Amino acid sequence: MISKDMGLLIRSQLRSPVFGFLAILLCACSGSSGSSSDPSGIVSPTFAGLTQVEARNSGSVDLFWQAAQDPATPASQITYLIYQGSNSTLSFTKPNYTTVGATTYTVNQLTPGATYWFAVLAQDSAGNRSSPASSKEMEVTLPAFTQACIGGSQATPLSTNSVAHPAISSLGNSPVIAWDEPDPSSGLRRIHIKQCSSQKWSDMDTSGLVIVNPADHQTTPAIAASGNTLFVAWLEGGALDGNFNPADAILYVNRWNGTQWDTPINLLSGKMYAALRPTIDASAGNPVVAWDSNSGAPARQIFLKNWSGQGWTASDWTLIGSNGDNGLNVTPSDEAAAPALTRDSNTTYVTWKEHVCTQSCSSPTPTIIVQVFAVSCTLSSATCTTLPPTTPAQPLNTDPTQSAFFPIITLAGGTPFVGWYETCGNNPPCDGGYDVWVKSFTQGTGWTPVGNHLNTTFTLQDVDLRAISTTVYAAWSEFAVNTNHRMINIEHWDGAAWQLDNIANASSSADAVSPVLADVSNSLVVAWLETVLPQNAGGASSPNQLFAIQN
User: Looking at residues 160-183, what average pLDDT do you find?
Assistant: First the structure.
């Protein structure tokens, strides 16, 4: 005989240990009493239902329960039927998920900020289910990203003046964002920096970013902080038809100690000229800066310099891994560009793209494949070694016949992770588009893919990675079929698969690009640009706006 004892409904609210609030509705009822033996297999399992629900992040929920008991079916063979709904009226007709012999389950690909209800039933090998009346239905509201610094869900841009080249870091325990935009009077691009203070964005003094020639543009800031010291690297170059002219660009670096700027330092030395794409990291103390530029070598080189931590002059910055006019390039005669770097206390890791000739190299139309490489550099000896240390160096490209672009690198638990986007050929479903890939490196194994490609469609660009503790987050701009616009996708690697955290656009009718990520006191902060494209041919796009959110 199966007894049922309807109890009280108890509603309580608990704060989730991970994010947001967890509201739980408990229906305390008993399941089947069962018997010591069940030769006919007609007794349902004894099961108390869910015991706990936790929002793991803004897109995933962990469910927990105690193992069911059944006189005829071993615990390892009991099937758990998991039901999901958007309100407390769950339908127990067909489960959304099933698992066998487990006492936990993770539900993924949920919508950030949405509320879900869950219940679990147990089913034995004869098909007998525990009663829905004995289940505990639990409600959970997933956390949503809020506006960085100021809070709330209302999208408020930090700037609306044709913003370009956003960069983000953590200064103290607050986010700081830099970018360049045109000066309203001269039209020349100038660097702006804002820091979060008392839940509002405040303009930082940028007088220390001295403009050597007032007729030059300032552009492409890269920022990093060590404690309360902010380091900024940027480019200055002359105007060509009103635009920034990279042919004479100079790379500068300066530091802000919390009250004042030091003297800007020109990092170009020897025969270097026409610097581009600076990147900087100071997560382990003294900053390191990487960039690409021309030199006396036959092609553009990747250069890396490290600050000694002593004086603040050009001589206190040391070239790492360079040989004469040659930089870190695997092949000095191959064009290299777009470096990215990260570091720990002992090692700096650098990745970049390099144009490699693979066929008909001496002909006017050689076959060029863009390959991604990575090195580890020991600052004390000023030497670098390819990862893995093989000859010839091994590129990271997933498909050796396809080109890879604009890599980014981060460290998670001491392990390097590199992400990039790569052409995926002209065969369906790709049709000439790109895929986002991430690989991790381990000694003895080399580079291995971290899951499959991250993107859903194949029109995408602008990848960034950031690790918070041992969790790796990725963001990129991808064309969304349902909105017909580029959207910022944010996902994290849970150890087995990439999980969606957010679609970040402030407006679904705008194109969003250039996402950048930062770890601010163990919170992920994301900044990006948005522009509204013209509705009619010949119309003008809106100026790029800058937005930032955090979880």
Answer: 94
